[in-house]
Amino acid sequence: MGVHSAAERVLAGLDPEQRSAVTAPAGPVCILAGAGTGKTRAVTSRIAYRALTGDIAGRHVLAVTFTARAAAEMRSRLTVLGVQGVQARTFHAAALRQVRYFAPRLLAGRAMPELLDSKVRVVTLAAAKVGLRADRAAARDLSAEIEWAKSSLVEPGEYVVAAAKALRETPYEPARVADVFDAYERLKRGNGVIDFEDMLRAAVWGIEEHPDVAEQVRNQYRHFVVDEYQDVNPLQQRLLEAWLGGRDDLTVVGDASQTIYSFTGATSSYLVDFPRLHRGATVVRLVRDYRSTPQVVGLANAVISQARGTEARLRLELHGQRRPGPEPELRIFTDEPAEANAVAARCRALVAGGTPAREIAVLFRTNAQSEAYEKALSEAGVPYVLQGAERFFERPEVRQAMIALRAATRSADAGTPLPAAVVEALTAVGWAPDAPPPGGAARERWEALAALVQLAEEYAAQAEEEPGLTGFTEELARRAAQQHVPTVEGVTLASLHSAKGLEWDAVFLVGLAEGTLPTTYAKTMEQVEEERRLLYVGITRAREWLWLSYATARSPGGRARRPSRFLPQLDRSGGGERAGGGGPARRAERRRPQVVSCRICGATLLAGADRKLGRCPTCPSDIDEELYERLREWRQRVAGAQKVPAYVVFTDATLTALAERKPGRTEELVAIAGIGPRKVGLYGDTVLALVAGATVDEVCPQKTSEN
């Protein structure tokens, strides 16, 4: 096959936007690629096309991404396309290779220092040196904070100011974290070891401070590709700029709407600012979604269309390319056990119907939510695997807690209610029933133990007589044994963060309640928007079948919760306009109850009166009092003329909604819950005239009520 025909083969089957990305001239290129739009195909085809046309040599290309799996996929695709020699690696793997190669030159003949697999052990020692006793969870949180600082190019002496500026929720007082950070750096140097951030810094230092190293690296790598560019942190960007050395043959690929790792130091600012920082850059938008049905794509668009902030500037509206599929389902349950049992039952039905278990996923916001689904799936006989986390009963804090509970059975007061006895026993492992501590790992530990208290409350509520601690510990042991059954293939249980980059035929998004998604720890607008993007990422994992659910209470009889503010009106989610107009799918969609969002705070509304008003009862009213009085007078005249009670015309709630929302068109009138086609036909023109300023006498003369 000739060079020309090989290059044409690369272009075959690409859509117009992908082709534009592949054939863009050398220089800065920014590919904004929505979920499921074929970004890996586009970027590997661009490398292959340029290599096969003689524009570049494969050995001079460095393609970097964030996971070894993604790098391996790149290499595999390039091999199939007939291109050899391209280096496709993660940032860390590329830096490690260079530092090892140049270590004898940079370190005066010495070998590269040992690389730490984990910071936790050294951080624990560093904390002890400054007078802090850090358990494993606290050490993990301190490690994460140090990693954020180093990835953000923040030194120990700068940490306090930088943490305040970034609104970090620190595991200890910022000054104490800075002390641990400083002690950690000293311990590392004293022991002759480095961490992953040191390795990236060493690669930067080697290039920036050693002209001979810079020349050799830049002669080797002349063309750069960066995948998932929205996840780059300042240290990785510094390394990329060192590699480039002022050159501009750079292709970046990313999606600002999938920015969900800012807590680690990742920032979408480099993607957002790319056209400004690289004058004359080619920008291509990939918006044809080949992964999901139009129904799933429509819901994803509805969720992200409400986004605000910096990332929303690059928001993409996706266009589903697959055949229509089932509408996304929204299900509401009385409590979390009922929700989990319903999910397990549907998973069992899907598997029985021929869907492979590996093509089903249950996604949740926090790892502590997994226990209910592990239990429900086990009892339903559905195998499962946990992605990116330990099984609930294998977590160290849960194992430790079960030991403490068994020990407490020997001394527990027989008259103590079970939940109180469990809380008392858990204090022995450092748990307290007040607000969770700051820090991600410490908070996860707290939530896992809180889940045990919740299990105790559920166990007590279901028992016919007051249960004891012994019976409860036996129940926990039974559950633990049941969930240790090894599985070869199963339904995936995963957090939304660990699900990024993956996809399944059927996806369950569970626990979509206020306080969980968005989490109560999301305080700022930026944090809330990242929670919205998490839901968007979850939705776009589904190829065909999507279930969204929440429970109105955590446990039976528990405190009521509101649904997530991110849930849109599902009548906008079907994609029916694009996928079939008024066909059966669209008619089924119209029969589906709407989920109406508060026009002020965005929360989902369920109560009839709230749905009419279009706002929560606690949100401020913007009622036009004068309009409300005119509407009341008009209603009284019409009701008198028709000899019916006033509420038959319109209820008080409907009048309030009209006076608050002031519809100007029939479409806006129909959007108010409770105003259907019949009432629009009877009163629509009159109501719109009143809203526009007409008097009651103008639309309904007094004699009407006297006839």
From TrEMBL:
Keyword Nucleotide-binding on entry: yes
Catalytic activity: Couples ATP hydrolysis with the unwinding of duplex DNA by translocating in the 3'-5' direction; ATP + H2O = ADP + phosphate + H(+)
Key word Phosphoprotein present: no
Alphabetized Gene3D superfamilies for the sequence: 1.10.10.160, HRDC domain (1.10.150.80), P-loop containing nucleotide triphosphate hydrolases (3.40.50.300)
Catalytic class of the enzyme: isomerase
Family: Belongs to the helicase family. UvrD subfamily.
Span of domain UvrD-like helicase ATP-binding: 12-293
Keywords assigned by UniProt, alphabetized: ATP-binding, Helicase, Hydrolase, Isomerase, Nucleotide-binding
Annotated UvrD-like helicase C-terminal domain residues: 294-544
Domain HRDC: 621-701
GO molecular function, one term: helicase activity
Biological classification of the source: Bacteria, Bacillati, Actinomycetota, Actinomycetes, Micromonosporales
Stored Pfam families: HRDC, UvrD-helicase, UvrD_C
PANTHER family per the UniProt record, alphabetical: ATP-DEPENDENT DNA HELICASE UVRD2 (PTHR11070:SF69), UVRD / RECB / PCRA DNA HELICASE FAMILY MEMBER (PTHR11070)
Protein name: DNA 3'-5' helicase
Source organism, top-level taxon: Bacteria
Organism: Micromonospora aurantiaca
EC numbers on record: 5.6.2.4
Residues that bind ATP: A33, G34, A35, G36, T37, G38, K39, T40
Annotated region described as Disordered, given as residue ranges: 556-590
InterPro entries (alphabetical): DExx_box_DNA_helicase_dom_sf, DNA_helicase_UvrD-like_C, DNA_helicase_UvrD/REP, HRDC-like_sf, HRDC_dom, HRDC_dom_sf, P-loop_NTPase, UvrD-like_ATP-bd
